[in-house]
Design goal:
74% of the residues lie in helices and 0% in strands. It is mainly alpha-helical.
């Protein structure tokens, strides 16, 4: 019985650790890497235009990571609701081998 309680405790601890890791990866890493990217762009180019584009790119990536669930659900609806059909060629394909016929 003690082993069962310990196993449940380990499972709860690992779920909590995974939740903390997911929080760090989605809420802490993108802004830090985005700021580093913007500073690196400014340091290498000294161009306000390139730095502004780097800010836009970092912000877009951060927004995409923060809204992953919305984007995933939207993409799933678009793909499932699509009307893609198998395209069948109308005429047979003829290969020219260049040899005598």
């Amino acid at each position: 019985m003690i082993n069962l309680v310990m196993a449940a405790s380990v499972i709860d601890d690992s779920k909590r650790l995974i939740g903390d890791l997911k929080y760090i990866l989605t809420n802490l890493v993108p802004p830090v890497f985005g700021a580093a990217f913007v500073l690196w762009t400014w340091g290498t180019s000294k161009s306000p235009v390139k730095t502004f584009v780097a800010c836009l790119a970092a912000g877009a990536i951060w927004w995409g990571i923060a809204n992953m669930d919305v984007l995933r659900d939207k993409t799933g609806k678009d793909i499932k609701g699509g009307s893609a059909q198998l395209i069948v060629p109308v005429a047979p394909m003829v290969l020219d081998t260049g040899g005598p016929q």
